[in-house]
Amino acid sequence: MSRLVVIIIRKKLTGYIKNITEDTLENISSNAIITKDKITYINNDVKHIIHIKNNGLILIRETNEFKNILTFSINRSILSEYVIKKEDLCLEINIKTLELSITDKIIYIKYLILDSNTIYEYKLFLEE
Predict the structure, then answer these.
(1) Nearest alpha carbon to residue 61 among 75, 73, 71
(2) Res. 15: pLDDT tops 70
């Protein structure tokens, strides 16, 4: 019987989420758990899970009050979800990925929320 081996790495993670349209910035500084195609970290009481795919990524941001599922694929508009748990309400958000870059050390996403015409920039640095 063969065994599945999962390698888990813990790294320091820094970065930011910037609302370019409104000029606001949320800094990120956390310890991350990294597997082959997934990064998990908590920042400001919000759990973040990043699933890296061949042609994009999925970012899940979650607290006790909400769950935000954002799907990114370069130059595509994709419906994403914002769930308000207490109200059992799911809102669809149309997002267009403007820029997307994934390397071993940096994840960079620039995206437009089409409904509000708001541009965000999300950048993570994985430290050695």
Answers:
(1) 71
(2) yes
Q: What is the DSSP letter of 5?
A: -
Centre a 10 Å sphere on the Cβ of residue 73 and count the other Cβ atoms it contains. Answer: 17
Count of residues making up the chain: 128
Q: Among all chains, which residue has been given the structure tokens 């708001």?
A: 118
Q: What are phi and psi of 127, to 5 degrees?
A: -85, 155
- CA 48/CA 18 separation, integer angstroms: 16
Q: What is the mean pLDDT of residues 23-48?
A: 93
Portion of the chain with pLDDT greater than 70, in percent: 93
DSSP label at 7?
-
- Say if residues 71 and 58 touch (Cβ distance below 8 Å): yes
Q: How many CB atoms lie within 10 A of CB 120?
A: 19
53-87 pLDDT, tens digit each:
888 999 999 999 999 999 999 878 898 999 999 99
The residue type at 77: S
Could you give the CA distance from residue 93 to residue 86 in angstroms, rounded to a whole number? 19
d(C-alpha 92, C-alpha 120), whole Å? 17
